[in-house]
Amino acid sequence: MSESPIGRDTPQVNARAKVTGRAQYAGDIQLPGMLHAKVLRSPHPHARIRRIDTRAARALPGVKAVLTGADAPDALWGVHHKERRILAREVVRFAGEEVVAVAATSDEIARDALELVTIDYEPLPALFTPEAALAEGATGIHPGRNNVAHEIAFERGSVEAGFAQADLIHEATYTTHAQYPGYLEPMATVAQVDGHGRLQVWASTQSVFLARMRLAAALELPVSRIRVMQTTTGGGFGGKIVEDANSLIAALLALKTGQPVRLVNNRLEDFLGACSSLPERLTLKLGMTREGRIVAKEVTILADCGAYCGLTNEVMHVSAMRSDNMHRLENVRSHAVLSYTHTPPHGAFRGFGGTQMLFALNSHIDTMAEKLGLDPVAIHRLNAIQAGDTSIHGWEVGSTGLMECLDQCTEAIHWAEKRGRRDQAGRRRRGVGLAAAMHVSGNRTIGNWDGSTVVVKLNEDGRALVHSGECDMGQGAMTMLSQVIAHELTLPIEHIQVVPPDTDTSPFAIGTLASRVTMSGGHAAILAARKAKAQLLALAAELSGHAEETLTLIDGAVRLRDADNGEIVADLATLARQHIWRHGGEGLQVSATWDPQTRMHDDDLYGNIASAYSFAAQAVEVEVDTETGRVEVVESFVSDDCGKAFNPLAIHGQTNGATVQAIGWALYEQLQVEEGRIMNGNFADYTLATADAVPMLASGIVESNDPKGPYGAKGASETAILPGAAAIANAVHDAVGVRITDLPITPEKVLAALRAKEDADHA
Amino acid sequence: MSESPIGRDTPQVNARAKVTGRAQYAGDIQLPGMLHAKVLRSPHPHARIRRIDTRAARALPGVKAVLTGADAPDALWGVHHKERRILAREVVRFAGEEVVAVAATSDEIARDALELVTIDYEPLPALFTPEAALAEGATGIHPGRNNVAHEIAFERGSVEAGFAQADLIHEATYTTHAQYPGYLEPMATVAQVDGHGRLQVWASTQSVFLARMRLAAALELPVSRIRVMQTTTGGGFGGKIVEDANSLIAALLALKTGQPVRLVNNRLEDFLGACSSLPERLTLKLGMTREGRIVAKEVTILADCGAYCGLTNEVMHVSAMRSDNMHRLENVRSHAVLSYTHTPPHGAFRGFGGTQMLFALNSHIDTMAEKLGLDPVAIHRLNAIQAGDTSIHGWEVGSTGLMECLDQCTEAIHWAEKRGRRDQAGRRRRGVGLAAAMHVSGNRTIGNWDGSTVVVKLNEDGRALVHSGECDMGQGAMTMLSQVIAHELTLPIEHIQVVPPDTDTSPFAIGTLASRVTMSGGHAAILAARKAKAQLLALAAELSGHAEETLTLIDGAVRLRDADNGEIVADLATLARQHIWRHGGEGLQVSATWDPQTRMHDDDLYGNIASAYSFAAQAVEVEVDTETGRVEVVESFVSDDCGKAFNPLAIHGQTNGATVQAIGWALYEQLQVEEGRIMNGNFADYTLATADAVPMLASGIVESNDPKGPYGAKGASETAILPGAAAIANAVHDAVGVRITDLPITPEKVLAALRAKEDADHA
C-alpha cells in the first residue's frame, strides 16, 4: 500500500524542474518580437520634473518606445491609498521612482537609450524622517494631505488602572529598520497583447488575481481584458504581493508598442524598485506584577512608509495589536502613526509587522524578567494565552503549542545551564536568549473573504490535475496541494499535477499572504478531493452493484470495505474513464470552496480574524567579541507550532530560512539610505547572512493539532521569523550585559554599549 | 437594450486576430532552444528496410537527433486497428510513410540532414487496388491479416421481396475518389518537455483530448504526462481529427532531444502525410414503384483505406447506411468491404462518407426518375422521411426541413423552366441538376458518450470567460459559444472570452467532428449560463431582499421583473464581486454537462445515434462545352436545414465553403497516384476550385427548429457538402444527356461519354 504523504518528508514537487534548470521563470520567457525594457529612475528624493527630453533616445535604432508619465494613464494605483502613477508625472517623491520606461530590441539598447534621456529636475526640499514629515508646517508629500498615511488608536480595559496595579513598570523605545526581501529572483514580468487585444502578463508574483486587479486599476482596463499567469517564482517574502511597479510598466510598454515586452530587474533595480519591510520606532510600556503578570501594555508606534503607502497601513496595524493576542491581557492601549517621507516605499514582508513588535516585546520581557529576578520563560508561560481562550481583541485560540515550543527550545539550547554565565572571562563571551511569537493562519482582511477554491480533475489514467489560484513562491503550495490530493485519493504524489495559477484558468484566489494557503487552500483541496471520491464511490457502486457504504478507496482503487483481501472493485483509471464514457457521463472535474468561519475585525478592531493561530519560540546562543563588538550566533533552535506538519522537510526548510533571514535582519542587513538614496543596493554591500554567519540550524516541530486546521495544520512560514531578532538581542544581553534596542545589532553599537556600560559600571 | 446575438449575423470572434495576423498558429510559436524537424518518407509503396545509415546526418553540425523506427516506442497506434508505428520499422507500406525524423537547429539543416541519410530498401511487390489486395493469395499488407480492414453486412426487411414489388429496378456502379482536405494551414506541431518532464504539445487539431489519447498510446505515456493545447487552427475538414503522425513525430523528437521541436509540414509533406477522403466504389441497386416509391435498396461498397485503416471503417459505415435514413424504407441490404492497399492512407473528411453514397444515390434517383418519366424532386418528396418518423435504422427524426430545402433550391434555380432544355444548339449546353442530403448532428459512437462540458466563469467586471474542450478549426465554435453565453447572460458578445482548448485546463471533450459542437457544446453552454444566472439571481435576491421570482436578468443587470422602468437591483459586475467578497463566497464559476439522449447503434446497427438530423438540398446549373468536355457550374443554390441559424453569416460561410469543396471534388481535384505515389502534391497540380471556377454562390437557410436542438439548432457545416457532386452530375446529364458515374467529371470523361452517346445514338 502506498503510504500517505501527509506527515512524511516530501521533496517539493517542483524541485526537479528547479534544480535541473528547466523551471520557467518570467525572465526565461522568450516570445517572437519580444522587446527588452529598462526604467529610468529619479536620482532625487523630491523634485519637480521640469522637462523630459526623449528625442535622442527615441531616435536610437532599436528603440521602440520611450514613455513618460504623460504616456501613462491618469489612474492612480495603490492598495490603501490610490496615489501612485505607473510613471511619475510632474513630481518625484523618492530616489528610485520610475520616471521613464524604454522598450528596445535588446537589453543593451534599452540601457543605452536611458542614457540619452535628459530630464530637467528642480530639486525640492525633502522630508527624510517621520519626525520631519510630521512637523508642523511640513510640506505635504501628497497634495492636500498632512503626511499621515494611516493612524490607529485603541484602548481596551483601562491602561491607567492596569499600571496602577503594576509592581514594575518599564518603558523603552525600540527601533527597527527596513529589510530588503532578498529573494533570489528579482521582480520580473513579460507582457504582451494577444490577438484579441487582451493583455497577457507572465509575472513572478504571489497573487495572480491581485496582480490582475492592480493592472486593471492602473491601466484603466476591465479585469477580463487581462490575463495574468504566474511563472515559477524565486521567492517573494511579501515583496511580490502588490507593490511592484514592474508588471505595470511592462504591461504599459506592451500596450503602447503592440509587442511583447520583458522587464526583469537587475539587483540594483530591484533594491530601488522593490518594497523593503516597514521601519518602525516602537515605544513599549509594560506593567507587571512581581510574579511577572502583565497588567498593562501601552504601545506607541511611529512608522515610515516612504513615499507611497502600499500595504504598510496593514503592516503597522499588525505591529500595533497582534502581539496583544499572545497573552492573556486586560488592559492595552496602542497609538500608531504611519508617516510619509521622501524615501523609497516600504511594504509587506514575511512576518508582516510581527517582527518589529516582537523584537520590542521579547526584549522588554527579558529586561523586566531581570528586574524582577524571574526567568523570562516563566513570564512567557505565566502570560501565555491558552487553547480555548478568546484574546482581548476577540481572537479565538483553538490551539497553542507555545508551552511545548518553549520546552523544546530551552532544552535544546540548555537554557538552565547556559543562562547567565557571569563567570566568563576573556574576549569572547557567550550568552543565550529566547523569544516567543504568534502569527495568524489566514487573515480575514480583504473584502471579508478569506476562502479558497480548488478544482480537481481526474484524468483517464486515474491521475489528478489540480487547479488553484494560490501561488507557490517557493514555500511549497504546490507540494502541499499535491500531498492533500494524493492523501485523499490514495494516490502516489507523483500522480498529482498542480497547474500553475492563471487568472483565465484558475479559480479565483486571493493568493499567497498571511500564511493562509495551507489553511484555506488545504481545506479546499480536502473538500474537492472528497467530492471527487464520493463521485467515484457512487459510480463504482452503480456499476458494480455493491452498496456504496460497502466500498472504500484504498491505494488508488475502490475496494470492498470488509474484504480481507482488499478485493478491487475498480481502479481509479477505470472509473475515471467510466465517468466519461456512459450515458450522462462527463470528465470527472469537481470544484470546492472553503471559507473560514472567521470575522473581519469590526470598527472597534475586534474580531476573530483567523481560523487558527500559530506559535513559535526560538532560543539562541551567541558569542560576542568584546573587542570588535561582533556578534555571532553559534547555536539556534526554533520550535514551530504549525498545528500539524504535513511535510516536516518543508517546515524545517521554512524554519531554517526564516532563522537566517532573522539573523540577517538582527545582525547584518541594513539598507544604507543617505539623503533618501539607497547606497548599497547590491549583495556585496547589503550583507545578507551567508553560510559562515549561520550556525548549524536546528529546529523542532510542535503539533498542536488545531481543531480548525486541515488535518490540524496551521500556517508555517512566517511564524519562525518572528522571534529571531529578540532572541539574539536577549542573548547579547545575557552574554555581555548590554541591551541593544536599535536594530541591527552592529559591532559599532555593541562596542558603544559596552563602553557606556563600562563607564556606568565604573561611575 | 443590447440585442441578443442569437440569429444575428455575427463576425467570428477570432476574426480580428486572424486578419491582423496576430492569431497564433502552431507554426508561429517560438520557444527558446527550439529545434526544427523534418521527416524522410518512403519513396516506395512497399519495401523492406534493409539498413538505414544516419551517421553522416548525425555528424552534420546543428543536427540534434536523427531517429528511425528503432528509436520509436514499440507501441502501435491507430483508431480502429493499432497497426502503425510513429516511424516505420522493417517494412514501409506506402510511398510517403514516415521513416526517419530529424531535429536540427534550423529548418535548412534539418532538410540537409535528410539528404545525408541513406536507406537501403528492398522494394517488394505492391498491391495498389482493393481488387488486387483481396485477390486470392495476395500478400497480407499487415502480418497475419487478409487485407480486409473492416466489413459491414446487414439486411433489414427483405430486399428480395422489395425488388419483387418494384416496377423498375436499376443497378449501377459509382466510383468516388480521394479528396485532399486542402486546409490553408498544413499539419503543424510544436512539442517540448517541461520542467516536470511532462510533454507539452501545441497542435493544429480538431480535438485536444483525442490528440492526447493518441500521443499517450503511441508514446507509451500516461495521459496525465501530456498536455495538448490547441493553437489557432487554419481548417481541418476532418483531416485533423486523429490521423496525422505529425504531432507524434514532433513529440518523439522533443522527448529524445529534451528540446522544443517544431514540425510544420510544407504543402508537399502535407499531401504525403495527411489523410485524404476515402475512395469508394459503390454499386447501388434500387427498386421503385412506377410512382417513384423506393421499395428495395441494395448497396455494395468496396473501399480502399490505403496502408492504414485510421477512421475509415467508420467512414465506410456511414456510406453503407446513413442515406437509408433519409427515406422511408422497408427493405435495405448493404455489404461493404474495406481493403488495405499499398497506397497513402485515407481518413475522415467533411461529410464523413456521406458524400460518396449521396453522389451515387442522387445520381441513381435522377436516372430512375427519367426512366419513370418523373421529376426527381417528386421522388425525393415521395420518399422523404418526415418529422416524427423513426427510420429503418432507428433514427428518430425530430425535424426535417428537406421539403422546404427542395422548394428553395428549385425556385432559386428556376427548376421547372430550365430543366430538360432539349432544344439547345451549339457548342455550350446548359442543364440543371439537383440532389438532396441528410447528416447527423452529433453521433454517439465514441465510447457511448456524445456529451460536452462548458465552464463559465464570471469575472469581477461582469464579463465572462468560457472554457470548453471543443475546438474551433475555423468553423466558429468560439463564436457559437460566445453567442450562447452572451444571449443567456444578456451581455454584449465582446464581453465573452472563450479560452482555447487545453487538456490541462479545459473540461474533457471529444472535439470537433460529426457536426456535434453546436448540438452538444451549445446545449452545455446554455446549461452552464443558466446555472450562473440562477446563482446571480439568488445572490441578488439575498442581498436586495427582493423575492427571487420577482427578479430577472436584462441587459447585463438584475432587474425587478415587473418594474416598468426596469429598475436595476444590481449589475453583473457588482454581483460577481459580491459573489466572492462575503462569508462563504467564491469566484462565480459553474460547470455544466449535456449529453444527448441518443443511443449507440446496437450489434445489429440499430439505434438513434444523433439528437437531430440536418438536411440540405442543392440545385445547380452547369454549362458543358461539348467540344472540350469542360463543365462549368454557372449557378448554385444550396439550402441548408440547420434547425435554427444562430449566426446566418456563419451558416452561409459554411455553405459557400462546402459548395466550393464539392465543386472541387466533382470537377477539378484529383490526386494523381501512380504506382502508389502521389504525383501532384502541390496546389499548382492539384487543382482546387479557384475563384474563376465558382459562380456567385447563393444559399438559403431553412429553420426547422428541432425540438432537441439548442434553440432549435442542428449541425451546419457538413450537410452542405453532401449534395454537390450529384447535383453537378445530374446537371451534366440534363445538359448533354450523358451520365458520369466516375468522379471527378473531367473533360476527358465527358468527351468520351459524349462520343459514346453519339455512337449509340447513331447505332
TrEMBL record, chains A, B:
<dbReference type="Pfam" id="PF01315">
    <property type="entry name" value="Ald_Xan_dh_C"/>
</dbReference>
<feature type="domain" description="Aldehyde oxidase/xanthine dehydrogenase a/b hammerhead">
    <location>
        <begin position="20"/>
        <end position="125"/>
    </location>
</feature>
<dbReference type="InterPro" id="IPR008274">
    <property type="entry name" value="AldOxase/xan_DH_MoCoBD1"/>
</dbReference>
<dbReference type="InterPro" id="IPR036856">
    <property type="entry name" value="Ald_Oxase/Xan_DH_a/b_sf"/>
</dbReference>
<dbReference type="InterPro" id="IPR037165">
    <property type="entry name" value="AldOxase/xan_DH_Mopterin-bd_sf"/>
</dbReference>
<dbReference type="Pfam" id="PF20256">
    <property type="entry name" value="MoCoBD_2"/>
</dbReference>
<dbReference type="InterPro" id="IPR016208">
    <property type="entry name" value="Ald_Oxase/xanthine_DH-like"/>
</dbReference>
<dbReference type="InterPro" id="IPR046867">
    <property type="entry name" value="AldOxase/xan_DH_MoCoBD2"/>
</dbReference>
<protein>
    <submittedName>
        <fullName>Xanthine dehydrogenase family protein molybdopterin-binding subunit</fullName>
    </submittedName>
</protein>
<dbReference type="Pfam" id="PF02738">
    <property type="entry name" value="MoCoBD_1"/>
</dbReference>
<dbReference type="InterPro" id="IPR000674">
    <property type="entry name" value="Ald_Oxase/Xan_DH_a/b"/>
</dbReference>
